[in-house]
Amino acid sequence: MHIFAPCPRGLEELLVNEFNHCGMTQVEQVGGGVRARATQESLYRANLHSRYASRILVRLAVGAYQKEEDLYQMARKIAWHQWFDVSQSFKVSTTAVKSPLRSLDFATLRIKDAVCDRFRADRGGRPNVNTDQPDQRIQLFLTETSATLYIDSSGNPLWQRGYRGAAGAAPLKENLAAGLLALAGWNDTDETGKPVYETFLDPMCGSGTIVIEAAWMRANMAPGLNRRFSCERWLDADRALWTKLRAEARAQIRPMAPQTIFASDMHPGAIAATRRHLEQVGLSDAVTLDQADFIGRGAPATTGLLVSNPPYGVRLSEQEELQAEYPEWGRTLKQQFSGWTAALFTADLELTKGLGLKPRRRFPLKNGALECRLFVIDLVSGFHRKQKPTES
Ligand SMILES: C[S@@+](CC[C@H](N)C(=O)[O-])C[C@H]1O[C@@H](n2cnc3c(N)ncnc32)[C@H](O)[C@@H]1O
């Protein structure tokens, strides 16, 4: 199978490694995603284990097009009834870059018609459309001249790890949070295989997205173990293989050293949300959670990795209010976290200037449409006394 997996921009390399590890072949990165060849097993494995992919799409057809009728003919040729049953609902979505078509909605409608017509011809009936919670998702991707049709093997996007309610969208998508941790070095090991960072802290944890990903990474917990995937309902689904892969993933979970993962936030509502999410994923005992202001909470160990996504004001007045706090955050990092590495994810590209700290690395990333940076700062002992505030 040819697959394409979109991911947050900036995480493509991490995803290439992950897919290679899952047994995919011819893995190559493109802007905003990764292409590869997959077997049924590597496809299942990647859905279960991928921390960085947004979804995994299986390519069913690709070809040139000029008008909607070409798209209809392309979709009509696919034996949809061999993929899913007429009793399952489906949804078609279209994304396009420079498509000459006047209406993408109409293109979507023609694909839907083709799926239904083909089902009627082969099965004497058509599946229902469900735009909210479909059993199967079909994706049309258009460029100026070519059209690609995919079936989505994941279903709900892979950043939905299964512990938030439908309404509980995280401020930070879970796959982006996992990417921030990997870029910051949370998975790095020394020559003996020991993790470079033993202790983790998110001192502005919000609803707990980053700390849950951090704990799962340290525990080697497959992020898809709490959820299901659309490809489990395909007609060729191999239940025994799913059972084997899930059992394998469970057996790979490692115990975590006690008192190594910490999270805090100053707002009681954030603490309540994080506590609820930790309970839902069985991590209440593994994560030490406190309500505390970052200023003055202190470091929980002499060294460690701090990864956080501090508040960012959308309005100018909010931004100015927050910027007034930066020097205090900077002082806290310098005075209370020397020996630590801090990785801060923000849409304020001037954050480190305000903190008076010089980042060792800066990774350009996007949070939705928002241009962001992950600034990685080494807080070496005595470092702050020598450093003058520098341009970032
Ligand atoms: C952008 S949100 C973090 C969202 C989080 N990454 C998530 O996915 O849910 C920023 C958080 O910082 C917290 N915060 C702001 N100033 C703080 C401070 N001085 N000390 C501790 N927490 C603070 C806010 O309460 C908010 O929950």
TrEMBL record:
A Pfam family of this chain: RlmL_1st
InterPro entries the record matches: DNA_methylase_N6_adenine_CS (IPR002052), RlmKL-like_Mtase (IPR000241), RlmKL-like_Mtase_CS (IPR053943), RlmL_1st (IPR054170), SAM-dependent_MTases_sf (IPR029063), THUMP_dom (IPR004114)
Gene3D superfamilies: 3.30.2130.30, Vaccinia Virus protein VP39
Superkingdom of origin: Bacteria
Cleaved signal peptide residues: none
Coiled-coil boundaries: none
SUPFAM superfamilies on file: S-adenosyl-L-methionine-dependent methyltransferases
Keywords from the named record: Methyltransferase, Transferase
GO function term, MF aspect, one: RNA binding
Protein name stated in the entry: Ribosomal RNA large subunit methyltransferase L
Originating species: Fluviibacter phosphoraccumulans
Taxonomic classification: Bacteria, Pseudomonadati, Pseudomonadota, Betaproteobacteria, Rhodocyclales
